[in-house]
Amino acid sequence: MAETVLEIKGLSKKYKKVQAVSNLSMKVEKQMIFGLLGPNGSGKTTSLGMVMGVIRPTEGEFSWFGNGQADENRKRIGALLETPNFYPYLTAVQNLEISAKIKGIENVAQEIEKVLKAVDLWERKDSKFKTFSLGMKQRLAIGETLLGDPELLVLDEPTNGLDPQGIAEIRELIIEIGKSGKTIIIASHILDEIQKICTHCAILKKGKLLQVSTIDELIGNQDVSLVKVQTENMDKLKAIIESDDAISIYKVDNGALILSCKSGTKSSEINQYFFDKGIVLNGLDTFQETLENQFLEIVK
Amino acid sequence: MKKLITLEWMKLRRLNTMKVILLVYAAVVPLMYWALSYIQIPIPTPIPDASPAFIGLPDSIFQFPDVYNYVAWVASFFNLMVGVIIIVFTTNELKYKTQRQNVIDGLSKVEIILAKFLVVVFLALAVSLYTFLVSFIFGALNGSVGDMFDGVEIIGVYFISTIGYFVFAFFFANLVRLPALAIVLYLVSTTVEGIVGLVATSTYVQFFPLTMFSNLVPSPISKLMGAPDFMWGQGGRVALVLLYISILVFISYRVIKRRDI
């Protein structure tokens, strides 16, 4: 049975008139790569802030590693919340030394070299933080989370401010870390990334949890093939589909129909099938459900 | 504890603001004190048209045991500068959100307050030792080295008084959070209470925290002008100052604990 690394029960945060997070309850288990999704202002960062000890919950409780809300728990977690926070007048190395000191990490110099190389900042290790570009600041923050090889990472918008190459590198880094057995919690808007990296996700809207599921469940049943078809005579098409058990309508997409059929069905078979029934298709394509589509549907 | 001191030292040792202010402090204190030897106070003469007469400050201010008292008193004014270091250092952590990151990395709020308090004590110690050194040198240059440790207790009391001023600065920094505002409020309140302390006639003014801090090191001017003695003895007043310091630290802790950072 999988170990629970984070359990949240009834967590809420109210700021004067705004209910930022409302009665959030969920569990994250070991080795999950858990995405926290939601529109802007849905309470992702506030929730992460509460479990990381920087925001006081109005109600509710949480527990890391079955050890409650103790401060030492956070030493086992590498976290990046919202913005990279470092001392501008200190260099990259000096800043990381401070984090290492707080976490009680051994072999400090070695660890720092390892993480700076992992995020491609080794050449700038002796530059003061205030001289860094936005992308470098973000990469230093990600490097900091890796210090001491923690069991768990909490990343709030990790690819914020990175160029496409940086985004790809960080994505690869996260996937690698996930494969090495670590647990990762990621909050992000970039659903394409989440779809590629995560195993599970929770969707928030206006402070409330809408649903928790695996990525596979959201992207659609893997036992079927999806095809997108278009024709001039839509009514005749629908009549044919209704009378056939093997094919059903998955959904409508801007005047085209997404059909669900037995797994392994080829587009050419579909093409032949409808042609034989007197329908000429003017659009035929395979279709893959995306997290983005599902997400937009859920938060509507 | 050792971890916290090392941690704060890692942050402080490269803070140029601190280095500059401490250098200025180190130069100004002995300089000002030495300048005192040139002060001439005019005294009224009995004969109307005789040339004006002046009197310098008594030589005892440069000799043991009084030299410790007087140097400490002069230095305590410049302690405001070092108090500003504490305000800048504390508000920086809020401005750069590094306090937030420290907590995320695993530091508890208790450790945050304790670490900053240790910085306060460390700076107060540095300042007190320096004041001792300056007094000692003046005293040694101007009198017999035989009684060189006479009157040195006042430095101990001065140390406590300095902690009081610095904790007050820390308290303001945490409450107000904006460096400029905190510095202004700190300077204004210390100056105002100082003046009130000198001038007020009500005996209860003696018990206000800042007045207590400054009165631990008796002002030579008050002595010379024959001001009334304090209500409590030195021991009692030190105890009360320690109580005030504890209260300020406790309130600062509560503020940090409850705040979303």
Task: Describe this structure in a few short sentences.
The complex is a heterodimer of chains A (300) and B (261). Chain A has 300 residues and is an alpha/beta fold.
Fill in the CATH topology of the largest domain in chain A.
Rossmann fold
Text of the CATH class of the largest domain in chain A: Alpha Beta
Largest interface: A-B, 29 and 26 residues
Query: H/E order of the elements of chain A?
Result: EEEHEEHHHEHEHEEHEHEEHEH
Spatial strand sequence of the major β-sheet of chain A: 5-6-7-3-8-9
Task: List the SSEs and their pairings.
The complex is a heterodimer of chains A (300) and B (261).
Chain A: E1 4-15, E2 18-29, E3 33-37, H1 44-51, E4 59-64, E5 77-80, H2 92-103, H3 108-118, H4 134-145, E6 152-156, H5 164-179, E7 183-187, H6 191-197, E8 200-205, E9 208-214, H7 215-219, E10 224-231, H8 234-243, E11 248-253, E12 256-262, H9 267-276, E13 281-286, H10 291-298
Parallel strand pairs in A: 3-7, 3-8, 5-6, 6-7
Antiparallel strand pairs in A: 1-2, 1-4, 8-9, 10-12, 10-13, 11-12
Chain B: H1 2-12, H2 16-35, E1 40-43, E2 53-56, H3 66-95, H4 98-105, H5 109-142, H6 153-176, H7 179-199, H8 209-216, H9 220-224, H10 234-258
Architecture overview:
- The complex is a heterodimer of chains A (300) and B (261).
- Chain A has 300 residues and is an alpha/beta fold.
- In chain A, the strands form three sheets. Chain A has a six-stranded mixed beta sheet, sandwiched between helices.
- Chain A has helices at 44-51, 92-103, 108-118, 134-145, 164-179, 191-197, 215-219, 234-243, 267-276, 291-298; strands spanning 4-15, 18-29, 33-37, 59-64, 77-80, 152-156, 183-187, 200-205, 208-214, 224-231, 248-253, 256-262, 281-286.
- Chain A folds into two domains: 4-218, P-loop containing nucleotide triphosphate hydrolases (Rossmann fold, 3-Layer(aba) Sandwich); 220-289, Alpha-Beta Plaits (2-Layer Sandwich).
- Chain B is mainly alpha-helical and 261 residues long.
- Chain B has one domain (2-258).
- Chain B is 71% helix and 3% strand.
- Chain B contains ten helices and two strands; from the N terminus they run ααββαααααααα.
- Chain B has helices spanning 2-12, 16-35, 66-95, 98-105, 109-142, 153-176, 179-199, 209-216, 220-224, 234-258, and strands at 40-43, 53-56.
- In chain B, strands 1-2 form a two-stranded antiparallel sheet.
- In chain B, helix 1 packs across helix 5 and helix 2 packs antiparallel against helix 3 (66-95).
- The longest helix of chain B has 34 residues, at 109-142.
- The radius of gyration of chain B is 21 Å and the shape is elongated.
- The model of chain B has no long low-confidence stretch (mean pLDDT 83).
- Chains A and B meet through helix 2 of A and helix 1 and helix 4 of B.
